[in-house]
Amino acid sequence: MNPLLRVPFEIPFDQIEVAHIVPAVRELIAESQANITAIEEFAGARTFANTLTALDESTVNLENAMAVVRHMECVSNSPELREAVQTIDPEVSAFYSSIPLNAKLWTAIQGVSEEGLNRLEKRFLTKQVDSFRRHGAELDPELKARLLAIDVELQGLCTKFSQNVLDATNAFELIVEDESRLAGLPENAKAAAKASAEAKGKAGYRFTLQAPSFVPVLTYLDDAAIRRQLWEGYNERATEGAFDNRDLMRQVLTLRREKALLLGYFTFADFVLADRMAQRGAIAREFVYELETATRDRFVEEHEALEAFSGQKLEPWDVGYYAEKQRQALYDFDEEALRPYFSVDVRYNEIYSNGRMVGAFYADWFPRESKRGGAWMEALRTGGPQPDGSFAPHLGVICGNMTPPMPDQPALLTHREVETIFHEFGHLLHHCLSEVPLRSLSGTNVPWDFVELPSQIMENWCWERESLDFFARHHETGEAIPEELFQKMKRARTYRAASGQMRQLGFATVDLVLHTEFVPNVEMDLVALANGVLQRFTPITLPEKYGMILGFTHLFSGPVGYAAGYYSYKWAEVLDADAFSRFKEEGVLNGAVGREYREKILAKGNSEEPRDLFRSFMGRDATQHALLERIGLVGPA
């Protein structure tokens, strides 16, 4: 039997072949369509159970299979797998896009009365009605057909964009044969580069555009020429040749704008944000601008101080290098000194609560050429309370591209990499601790400007002595982080925090500009437009060939993804800093506060409005003060 047709909880990855994908997905699309047809043709009185619960469950087998396929595509890409995904993507996209355009199903949903429904059921009914309307349920047949075609085309374009970034990343390598040119590079990074060269049958040291390879170079390597080659290689990915994403980006923006206009929204940002906390593109832009204004003066001061420290006008590939030198000089803190205390392995884990397994997850942390960059969490199976009173466990996966292990030692991570793991684990807890009985409102299925709260708040526990002592142990001696080193780390926390914030605000701003100001059929160099925006958020003059936007998969690797939503990181950071202030006041390991956070935020999914969930935990609305205090821009309230 094809293992993708009924994916078991313990996924048999070793039994799943590329040849299984296309036939399984096509059969599951047909099965899901049959389930929807049964809902449409039901002749009795409309109830929540026979219409909305049935709709919520109608695609479960297809979703389980596609979650596995998407995961395989992310972590083990191959030409054969790509071909299979490119074959089914249009079919899957067309099927899902057809659901809100189904006139009979729309009539069926409208036939469900609110009378007798509980609060959760009423919310789900309201959100389904709003979603169907927002996605074209009331359009005439011709416009529905056009909307469907747009969604299918967008999926194909975005898949190709993402593949181009992966291919461009893998096409780059820098071989350094003269070891003397590696002065300043930490020994573990040098050993990894040597192992990478040997794996390719080459002499010397091999550097790539995967983060564990290029980040140490830009941070520590004395040779500015090599730093420049790595920096330019990374920021010029997918800008030319067979992997050039310029035309794909234009096509994606054009289709997104057409879709928004077709659905009655002036911009794609307004369409995307209609059911998020920000609600409109203008509100998101105002939020970002307020943070920019609060940050700019300190941002300028930080750069002036760095140039004074370096004694030269800095180039882009110099900033990270001199920033690390300045940090060491100011705080006597070398982040490499923390590596021995942060070891990690790949493993499968289960999560239990009161003797019951509530979830499980796979963790895959190390880079491969077949694996996309960055870090992420994906839901592989959504469980939760069942109609018979039982609880089905959730299943997820967390992935990253961290420093890999070496033959003579385990993977030893930087503190920043540990923060990334905690971030993705926060998403995972949001998924695995959900107690919402409706799949569509479970776990991380919340507005995107709220979804980062559970992930970003977890990063705070990487900075607290009480929590670090649980897991940060020297891989050889078992000793906790020495107090002197811990205090150095804490003092250095706000170093160049304004610069870090401005970088994120720049990404958020260019995202919103592209999705509010782009006009199709107008001669416009989109890379130049993006660079013009980003230049405001960096004191370094960007080179002419700078093309970061063409590798920005957050915005262009899916039909929506973080498009018009990158501001969500900062929006949620305001929420996380404010929420963590309660832990700081009442105890970072306070069990009562932790249980309340779990019950009022993590367990609730999208069963209530995000603002109401936050208020239930904090007793008030969020303010920006805690974030500005955390990064050192203001003092305590």
Q: What do the pLDDT scores average to?
A: 95
Quick one: overall form?
Answer: globular
Q: Name the beta content range.
A: 5-15%
Tell me the number of strands: 10
Biggest beta-sheet profile: 4 strands, mixed
CATH topology of the largest domain: Neurolysin, domain 3
The CATH superfamily title of the largest domain: Neurolysin, domain 3
Terminal CA distance:
63 Å
Backbone structural class = alpha+beta
Number of domains: 4
CATH A-level architecture of the largest domain: Orthogonal Bundle
CATH class of the largest domain: Mainly Alpha
Task: Identify low-pLDDT runs.
Answer: none
- Spatial strand sequence of the major β-sheet: 4-5-9-6
Number of helices: 26
Helix content class: 55-70%
**From the alpha-carbon coordinates, what is the Rg to the nearest angstrom?**
25 Å
